[in-house]
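In practice, a research group might receive sequence data for several interacting partners and want a quick structural hypothesis before committing to experiments. The following worked case mirrors that situation: the sequences arrive first, and a predicted assembly follows.
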Amino acid sequence: MRRPREGSGRRRELMALPMSLYAALFVGVSLLYVIGLSLFTRGDGFAAQPPLTMGNYGRIASPLYLRSLLQSLRLAFWTALLCLGIGYPFAYFMAKSRPRARTWMMMLLIVPFWTNALIRIYGWKILLSASGPVNAALQFLGLVQRPLKLLYTDGAVLVGMVYAMIPFMVLPVYSNVERMDWSMVEASRDLGASPLSAFLTVTVPMTLPGILAGLVLTFIPSIGLFFLSDLLGGSNTMLWGNMVHNELLKSRDLPFAAALSVVLLALTGLVILLYRRAGGKTENMVF
Amino acid sequence: MAERPVLLSLRGLHKSFDTQEALNGLDLDVYQGEFLTLLGPSGCGKTTTLRIIAGLEQPTSGRVLLDGQDITALAPEKRAVNTVFQNYALFPHMNVARNVAYGLRMRGAPKSEISARVDEMLELVQLTGYEKRMPGQLSGGQRQRVAIARSLILSPRLLLLDEPLGALDLQLRRQMQQELKRMQQKLGITFIYITHDQEEAMSMSDRIALMRLGRFVQIDAPRDLYERPQTAFAASFIGETNLISGRAEAVKEGEVLLQVAGFSLPCVSRDWIVPGEALLLCVRAERLHLSHEPVPAPCRVAGEIVESHYAGGERTTVVRLPDGQVLRARHTTEGESEPLPGSRVYCWWHPDSGVLVRDDREETP
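A structural hypothesis for the assembly, expressed as tokens:
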């Protein structure tokens, strides 16, 4: 038996102090800075100046930006859904494999992420290009006569997004499936459920926390990613992340870029709020 | 019992996990309406046997017959057998009513029938009014009842119960034992029940199948198992037992003279006994009587009191025989004179209370 130590609460607070300071400084302050910035007027060059205005937000409420927002949300939605479709079975079989196979599958998932994301996206560019392996294989099999236009399409962006986001689906689902009490599934089979109904009525509901966490963790970053659509997308793929990127680095409109970012932040907050409302716990997003 | 029809048969059941032999050739007939208990130390193969009957595990070889039909390869959902799991395995995301209804829903029963049967089952286990509770909000005993109701709603031919009372405290355990027995008799469903609690097995079962190292040691009614154990393991697993080792002398019709430390003890013979062989005689501690005077009993040895432990209504006295063997006698403290260590004492028992058993203590798989 461990005895509770005198003043352990205060001690713990003290231990967490550096982390709290770090978060306050680098997350809290910079967030406030961005929110503040979004209320200023564009200055000369790369600067912001008074007077304070809500005009930046007014500008966002135009068809151009709404279309981009919808496009981003649609892409993020499909990314999250495809990640679920591919990631859930992967996580499921990984959790049910023997330890050795499990280690290998985990490596398959993690090791690619040790290389630079841009390099991996260039890999996709090569794969999907007109003379790339995918088209070569399709032609070899006689499925197509002429090379398909795979690169610079919304489909290519989606493939890249799913590829980039899949670990964030696999890991929370995996940690859920791995902790599953399989006697529940046995009980359902014993009570007359086929393997499929047992999966649908017991396994899925019991791993729902992992599914929800995975959906949020793949959906949120997908709205904001910009380099994927820059490299793989066509000229009319303008996602929200691209908008922020353009305003900041091309138009050099600091306050407006900040306003766009605030909208993205608000959207993220909303998704997390919905997640919490659905009974999701923040702990499930940590693995 | 024998005139009842056989419901379940196990034929030469073997099961090995990797190189480990879990079941080593089980043969068993379970009769309709019977309460059969699988009793044995942990790791003896009780749960594996139950899981094979439920279809959750496949035997390496051997067959399982239900009503004479081979169900060895049948999926668990296709067997008229249901299980009450050791940890209850209630679905945590469903309330009590939905847990109980699960089996009927999987069968696609009409809604009206489901709700009527759920009410009926909850009444049977005395949980009416708990329909909307979640499993997490129930006590251990209540969860246990839900698990039983959930299995019984399908009216199985055979109900398997894997240490269903293991997690409950003693008082609740005693109460649930009686309730389970009452339910079993009322519904007339065959029960195969796992426990490692010998008292529970004794008080509830029609027959007990005593298991050890993946084999049945003895399958008998509780009284026969206690009074006529076949082997030293069976004798010592249940109750407090003295195993007196000696040598069989004269074997004549129905009687053996056992030589123990210079005493010649008449014992009821068993057909496997060979003269000159080393034998074990099982005498229950409470059937071993002590006396300071030489009692005129045919089965009598003399020894020296080593120690004596007072335990309220009973006392256990340890006696050492001249050859060093130690016997334990349990006797009432009513009107006793306290046994003094070092004093000479006679131990005697009724010839029928001594049972010759095979020595299987050294056996390994």
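Before designing any experiment, note the following. Chain A is about 70% helix and 0% strand. Chain A touches chain B at residues 181, 183-184, 186-194, 197, 201-202, 205-206, 208 (CB under 8 Å).
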